[in-house]
Design a protein that fits this description.
heterotrimer, A alpha+beta (about 325), B alpha/beta (about 280), C alpha/beta (about 250), B: about 280 residues, alpha/beta, Elongation Factor Tu (Ef-tu), domain 3, 2 domains, six-stranded antiparallel β-sheet, about 20% helix, C: about 250 residues, Rossmann fold, 5 strands, about 35% helix, about 10% strand, binds flavin-adenine dinucleotide, binds iron/sulfur cluster, binds FE2/S2 (inorganic) cluster
């Protein structure tokens, strides 16, 4: 699975054009765009603009899969109606780490209809990236999701849908090949073991680091694998109601609180430790699967310079052995 | 199983005031939900306001789901403003529920604190209605004050019929509850009701539900009496939003309490950091 | 389930700029619907009639209080109102009015001259200092969406749910460039209650904190970050105090 081979085809320019046209028939293209403010965002692409390579955009494709405030249903006259369907989008220029993250979300939401409805509308097209200083990805970490991977002169089919598109464009003869992971820090993701984590409950690092946390939520907003949510209703004056699913964050004051005021994660230190547990150890059936794909986004946006990799390292020093 | 997070409309068919701000609510969903086992819970939606999880406190009868709900905050407050005949939404059932087969052929000890009586009352109903059942049922139930004891008359009635034995405790009281002078009630902690209780630990299964403080004092004490930790069942309360193992609010010891629980054995809880 | 069909509503104004009222009137596309479900008992910006001290379903209270007469009036309104909602920064924590510092009498004399000598007044106070407040709608001015959603939820017998989180979360979710981290601008987003969709930072204007302080705010760390922006201790103090009177959330139930 980890060093999986995918059918790969040569990709001459005329085939690129063909492929694009084929995709444009059914999907709207989204891709990384940089504004005047130098923030890279995933946006609808102007016609004919094709990204040169993948970019770790500010928010990831998570914003299309599990939108920040997405309607689940509406309620009127005593009947519940499923929210309107998403339209088909082909996202191009997705880096490999983000494709891994989509695989992870697919596992979490495998039985979630609203998620799957959106998922089915997405065509994910990976591209090679130029690793930045913050990048710590690892091909060993987990499988990846996606449909196509478009390299400089080859294209890989990652899914049946991708394969179908390539066959339609007569791409020549397939060869089974691994994906070209970027040169650079393809190494070990930070890991902590269950034992190390359990014995770290009283470690001073949680307190020292979390003292600076502003609970601003930036780290989970940008994280491609953070998915916790709240459910919120909004009622219109005509009596109709929409329930939305909105991104949450385990640093927020009410994440572990119950009526009556008891808080199961009362301090910032508990919350940082909970975040670390979720990222590096996982919850439920995914326990043991590290879900930090090493994209470096959280480190980049944190006003308090909190860095899970550094914390993991220090945890090994403070508690390990 | 697929989830769409969409409730089923349900009529609030009956409101029975029990104790101040702890009323019984009976809901009849327009389409029947899957059967609700004792210890499982549903999500009640008051659209335009929000939703909350609640256990059922009875077996489902004639398609009616019964819950004892405390007025505890924003959404439960709105529920208390509804009238019989109004509609709400229901999702569920969620969670694992009590493993009823493990209670068969055993004496049963139910220990509840406060509102913890609600899910245990559902379990009690299931035990009482299992006509093949052998074995005693003992209920130890603590509350802050005599007026807060839920299902008091019903429990006393069952005890007078000899179907269960029951002991109450209250944190404070000027007069202990009547009108049943023969009722066992003392001032103190519910864990103290274990003192002098005659039972055969090896033949006993226990179920406990109450606020976090109750678990800290009761569970290990119960294990000391000799009941195997694998036969002590506990239902956990956590903040819950989705009920299906996605939203992460309920996670404890790496597990989704809403899906893997909320009922765990003490043996399981000992392996779950932060559970008690 | 809609539990109410018509609401008798009274808008009550104490010391304020009337901006909160204006926000509701600005909800042009919803005014028709509003008129259908609301029977106005008083609304100073709409009509000079009103405040008949009749029982109402809901009183929306704007502004801060600074005289005994105002307190009397507020108490009467509380008695006549099934629900009382404090609207806007002035009503919630004193707002801009409460910025007046110093000895009261000399402050008054400084502005109104000798005529103020006999006046009975005290420093501006928020509404919850005197009466029970059922719901708060923060902001200076409050958000249209929040005003409408609160009225919408009342029709269903409750209050809308909201996430008690800082403005930063909305700001990041909208993929704005961070003014604090990238530009060292003195943005109060990290400790300010969200709900405004980070509308100031989205326009390049640092958050002023008008929605009040989020629960469990980490003021110490923000203070440190504000020092790094080059503000003096005094300037930071003023900035944090402007809308920071009381943490939000006490009337949340
Ligand atoms: C498995 C389970 C079974 C329960 N059974 C019962 C019961 O039988 N009777 C009863 O009265 N109460 C029960 N509760 C508690 C009940 O869910 C809370 O009292 C209720 O959520 C309070 O909601 P609120 O909106 O009024 O309060 P608020 O304090 O305004 O809470 C806001 C939201 O936070 C969440 N929340 C707050 N407290 C809790 C909590 N204790 N548990 C889960 N989510 C919470 C809810 O989603 C709630 O809507 C149960 C909770 C769980 C987890
Ligand atoms: S580096 Fe940070 S943002 Fe990226 S996957 Fe890991 S935890 Fe998430
Ligand atoms: S790490 Fe925290 S913020 Fe991220 S998904 Fe998990 S619980 Fe939510
Ligand atoms: S980005 Fe940093 S300061 Fe903000 S919540 Fe995450 S860890 Fe805390
Ligand atoms: S600009 Fe202000 S509100 Fe936005 S993320 Fe930065 S500090 Fe927060
Ligand atoms: S309630 Fe959402 S994960 Fe348990």
């Amino acid at each position: 699975m980890i060093d999986a081979l995918f059918p790969s085809y040569p990709l001459p320019q005329d085939v690129v054009d063909d492929l694009l046209d084929t995709i444009r028939r059914d999907w709207t293209f989204w891709g990384p765009c940089s504004g005047e403010d130098e923030v890279w965002r995933l946006q609808p692409l102007p016609e004919g603009l094709w990204p040169a390579n993948a970019v770790t955009t500010f928010l990831t494709v998570k914003k299309l899969l599990l939108p920040q405030r997405a309607a689940l249903w509406s309620h009127d006259q005593n009947s519940y109606r499923k929210a309107g369907a998403a339209s088909p989008v082909a996202v191009i220029g997705v880096p490999l780490c983000d494709l891994q993250a989509v695989w992870y979300l697919d596992q979490v939401f495998a039985e979630d209809e609203p998620y799957l409805d959106r998922r089915k509308q997405l065509l994910l097209i990976g591209m090679p990236c130029e690793p930045g200083a913050e990048c710590r990805c690892s091909r060993q970490l987990m499988p990846l999701a996606g449909d196509l991977f478009v390299g400089a002169d080859r294209v890989w089919a990652l899914s049946r849908a991708g394969q179908g598109l390539l066959l339609e464009c007569a791409c020549g003869v397939a060869e089974e090949m691994p994906l070209p992971w970027p040169e650079g820090p393809d190494g070990q993701r930070s890991q902590i073991s269950e034992d190390l984590f359990l014995s770290s409950a009283a470690a001073s690092i949680w307190f020292d680091e979390s003292q600076r946390c502003l609970s601003c939520g930036a780290c989970s907003a940008v994280c491609p694998t953070c998915y916790c949510f709240d459910l919120l209703d909004s009622a219109a004056l005509d009596g109709s109601v929409v329930r939305r699913r909105a991104w949450d964050n385990c640093f927020f004051a009410e994440h572990g609180k119950v009526a009556g005021g008891h808080d199961f994660r009362p301090g910032r230190a508990d919350r940082l430790r909970f975040r670390m547990e979720h990222k590096l150890l996982g919850f439920g059936d995914l326990r043991g699967q590290n879900s930090c794909v090493g994209c470096g986004r959280c480190r980049g946006v944190c006003p308090a310079e909190i860095d899970l990799d550094r914390i993991a390292e220090q945890l090994h020093l403070e508690v390990g052995s | 199983m697929m989830h769409d997070l969409q409730p089923v409309p349900a009529v609030l068919v009956k409101i029975v005031p029990m104790v101040v701000d702890n009323h019984l609510f009976a809901f009849r969903p327009e389409q029947p939900l899957a059967d609700i086992m004792p210890g499982q819970f549903v999500e009640v939606s008051i659209s335009g306001v929000g939703s909350f999880p609640v256990s059922s406190c009875d077996l489902v009868r004639d398609g009616r789901i019964m819950s004892c709900i405390r007025r505890a905050g924003r959404v439960t407050d709105a529920l208390y403003r509804l009238k019989e005949g109004d509609t709400v939404g229901l999702r569920g059932p969620f969670g694992n529920g009590f493993p009823l087969q493990r209670f068969a052929g055993h004496d049963v000890l139910l220990i509840a604190g406060g509102l913890g009586m609600a899910p245990l009352r559902g379990l009690l109903q299931a035990l009482l209605e299992d006509h093949d059942r052998q074995g005693r049922i003992m209920v130890l139930y603590g509350s802050r004050e005599p007026g807060g004891l839920l299902f008091y008359d019903e429990l006393v009635g069952l005890s007078q019929q000899g179907r269960i034995s029951v002991r109450f405790s209250v944190d404070f009281a000027e007069t202990l509850p009547g009108p049943h002078p023969q009722v066992f009630c003392r001032i103190g902690l519910v864990s103290e009701l274990l003192e002098g209780l005659q039972f055969a630990p090896r033949r006993t299964v226990a179920a406990v539900c109450g606020p976090p403080a109750l678990y800290r004092c009761v569970l290990e004490e119960l294990a000391l009496t000799g009941i195997a930790p694998a036969r002590i069942f506990v239902t956990l309360e956590r903040r819950m939003r989705c009920g299906i193992g996605e939203c992460c609010h309920c996670v404890t010891g790496g597990r989704y309490i809403c899906r893997d629980g909320p009922v765990f054995s003490l043996e399981q809880l000992r392996g779950m950091a932060g559970a008690i | 389930m809609r539990t109410t069909s018509s609401l008798k509503l009274s808008w009550v104004r104490f010391t304020s700029c009337s901006g909160c009222q204006l926000m509701l009137l600005n909800c042009e596309t919803s005014l028709n619907e509003l008129a259908r479900i609301v029977e106005l008992d008083a609304f100073p910006l709409v009509s000079s009639a009103g405040d008949r001290s009749e029982p109402v379903d809901i009183a929306l209270v704007e502004g801060s209080l600074s005289t005994p007469e105002e307190v009397e009036r507020l108490l009467a309104i509380r008695r006549h109102s099934r629900l009382l909602v404090a609207v806007g920064a002035c009503a919630l924590n004193g707002g801009i009015n409460a910025l007046v510092k110093g000895e009261r009498r000399s402050c008054l004399a400084g502005i109104y001259g000798e005529q103020s000598a006999g006046w009975d007044s005290f420093p501006p106070q928020p509404v919850h200092h005197f009466v029970r407040v059922d719901w708060q709608i923060p902001g200076c001015p409050p958000e249209r969406r929040e005003l409408l959603e609160s009225l919408g939820s009342i029709l269903h017998g409750g209050w809308p749910g909201r996430q008690l989180m800082p403005v930063c979360m909305e700001c990041r979710c909208n993929e704005n460039r961070c003014l604090l981290v990238e530009d060292h601008a003195p943005c109060l987003g990290p400790i300010t209650l969200a709900g405004c969709n980070a509308s100031c930072p989205a326009r390049g204007v640092p958050c002023e904190g008008c929605r009040g302080v989020v629960p469990e705010a980490n003021r110490d760390e923000l203070y440190r970050l504000l020092l790094e922006t080059g503000l003096s201790v005094q300037e930071i103090q003023h900035r944090l105090e402007r809308f920071g009177g009381t943490p939000h959330g006490q009337a949340d139930r």
